[in-house]
Structures are given as structure tokens and as C-alpha cells.
Amino acid sequence: MSSARKTALNIISRIDSGGFSNLVLKQMLNDSDISERDRAFVSNLVYGVIERKLTLDFGVEKLSGRSVKKIDSLALQCIRLGLYQLWYMDKVPESAAINESVKLVKMSHKAFLSGFVNAVLRNAQRQKGPVLPKDDGSANALSVIYSCPEWIVQRLIDDYGYDNTVGILKHSLEKKDITVKVNTLKIDVNGLINQFSDLGVEVVKTQVKNVILLKNPGSIEKNELYKNGYFHVQDCASAICAESIDSVSGCRVLDMCAAPGGKTFSIAENMGDIGEIVACDIHKHRTKLISNGAERLGLKIIKPMVLDATIFCDRLGKFDRVLCDVPCSGLGVIGKKPDIKYKDESEFAQLPQIQYNIICNASKYLLDGGRLVYSTCTLSKRENEEVVARFIKNNPQFKVVSMKTYFPLTDGTDGFFICVLTR
Question: pLDDT per residue over 96-138, tens digit each?
Fold first, then answer.
């Protein structure tokens, strides 16, 4: 496993320098020659270290007596790797977790730090479990215990209370299975389940129509069923969002912030691939993701377009349905994308205004009697209910048909917000 751990160290170092975890992991695993078993080990280790970083760093400081800011970056990364294996990977022998982490330092140009790394990890071994603060009910303690920045913890407490916040944070650290939306234009649910079963993949039906859960499916993009366009990866909440737009065959739909295209694909499938969907994104390279996905799934009615969702384009005309799944803080998906939670709070300050601008602009494209859906993958009320309330106040011709926040713990979905409005 030494080469796997070295690969994990290189990936984590790259992510720590500013790379997106999913993109860096995918690229560097594709460039490596490690086995499929080692690839799974690396993925678990990398995501685990990122996910538990605040908890691990609290332990590092307690075990070493030093601030993490004063510890050499290579030594810190190796200690994090070792600690995660010691505390959270039961199948890894303690000796391997320690010795292989020390070996990574010895193999570098900073071999002189190996003694320090070894001492910290040996100290951790004697603790027999994670070093954690006392749970005194404070946002600070929860921040360390569940490895989530204090400002996010406090915002969740303010919005949903202490007990719900603990549930949200605890669930964010649990293992996530993959859910996929069946492309019913090519195969039905039972047919796809049988195909996966033939490949030895365990499948579970979900409460959402045409969405199934896969247990340990391996690399999705290498799967022949994926290549044949039988499904696309989609969470239950996103599939519900696509259903909520209530699209029918022959109607005209505008997806304001569509990339990478999951909801667009579901809407097209729900329409029987009859009608028109204009799928927009502000970045040209992201509209390519929509094109590629539609081609793989065999969908013909999707028209990708580069468009700024905050600026009205009169040449588009009017639509029966408009979806604005707006850019958001992503606090509902930190369990799947853990690096989101380490962004600076200031990066999210302008989001409510941007979201408000988008829904206002989206409303201009809607035909009378049409349906407008506003959605996010966050659990921040200032980005959800407060944006909708402001929009309704300033646009009284619209009324709310339904509005719901989905919670991972109780709904078995990503954290998600969906509001359906009509004019």
C-alpha cells in the first residue's frame, strides 16, 4: 500500500494548494498505475482526511503541543494521513498506519522530520481513539467534533436549532452511497436493476420514481451501462426538483443554471424527449458537459446555451416552465463535497443578492399560468426562504404552490430546497 499512500499524499497536497478534491482525485488517479483496490483505498483516505481535517488538526495540536500553523506542511499532511488511518480506518493495522506515514517523510527531502511524525503518531496510538474536546453544546465544540467551520455550525444552529444541527453534521460524515436516475427512454427500472445485478452490484430502490441506489459499484464512468446511456448520476432531491417543474411532452422549458445537466436530463426524459429545453450556463466549457451528457443519454431536445442568468435575453422568448437552480453555498452537500465547507465565509456573502437577481430575471421568461421553480443545494435560510420571501413581496403576481427543505437525515437526500411558484 506504500505507493497508494504516496499517491494519497500527493493528491492531498495538491488539494491543499487550492485544487478541487473531486477533480484532482480523478485526474491523479487516472494518471497513476495503482490497482483498482488501491484506487478505492486512496479515494477513501483522501476524502476522509479532507472531511475530518478540523478534527485531525485539533488532535495534532493536542498530541504535539504545537499549532498546526507552525508545523511543516509535509509533516502535517503525513500526520493527518496517519491519524485518519489510526482513528477511522478499522481495517488498517496500527503499525501500518504509523510506519507507512513515517516512511513517506523518510522518502522525501525532509527526512529529518520523520522522528517528529513518528512521535506524534505513537502518542496518538496510546490514546485509543480520536482526541476530541468536551461536547459542551457550543458551536466551537461541534466544529471540532464534526470537522465543520464554526461559522457554518452557528448558522445551522440559528436556522434549525442545536439538535437538528447535530443530526445534519453527524450525517455529513457518514458513508454515502451513489444514487442514479434511470433513463427510461432506453431501459426501465427493473431492467437496469437486473443489468446491475448481473454485474454483481447490489441495487436498492429509493422512494423517488426512477431513482435507484448502488452499493459499491466501482468506477461509474467505466461502467458499460453508463457508457450506453442507461442512467446518469443524480441524488433523490435533484430528481424531485426535476419532477416538481411538472414538464409535459411538447412544452418549452428554460433551465437557467443547468450545468452539468442532471436536472435537464431528467426533465427531458420526463418529457419523453418531445418539446424543447434551453439549458444555460455562464461558462462555455460547462455547456459542453451538458452537450456530452445529452449525447450519451440520447436526448435530442436539449439546446445548450451560454447565458448570464442575471441578464435578460429577449430573443429567447417565453417558456411554459422555468427552473433556476441557483449558485449557492452548497451546505446541503458537504457530505459529498467536503472541501466546500472550508471556503471562506466572505465568498458566500453576495450569494443571496445574486440568487434574488436570478429568480427575478427568470420570472421574465415565464408565460402566464406557467411554473417557476427556485432551488438550491444549501440549508441556509438566507439563501432559501428569505430569497423567496423577498421575491414574492416585490412580485405579488406570483404565488407559492409548494415549498420544502429536504434534510439528509430525515429525507434520505442531499440537503436541498425547492420552491414551486406560478404567475
Answer: 999 999 999 999 889 999 999 999 999 999 988 999 999 998 9
- Residue 21 CA neighbour count, 13 Å, CB half: 24
- Which of 350, 365, 356 lies closest to 394 in space, CA to CA? 356
pLDDT tens-digit profile of 262-314? 999 999 999 999 999 999 999 999 999 999 999 999 999 999 999 999 999 99
The model's pTM is 0.92
**Residue 176 to residues 44, 214, 334, 377: CA-CA distances in angstroms?**
11, 10, 11, 16
Catalytic residues: 377
Which residues, 6 or more positions from 343, have their beta carbon under 8 angstroms from its beta carbon? none
Please state, in angstroms and rounded to a whole number, the distance separating the CA atoms of residues 53 and 289.
31
CB atoms within 10 A of CB 82: 29
CB 405 within 8 A of CB 361: no
Q: What is the CA 120 to chain-centroid distance, rounded? A: 32
Site of grid cell 485544487: 19
Q: Grid coordinates representing 219?
A: 468506477
Return d(Cα 361, Cα 322) in angstroms, integer. Answer: 11
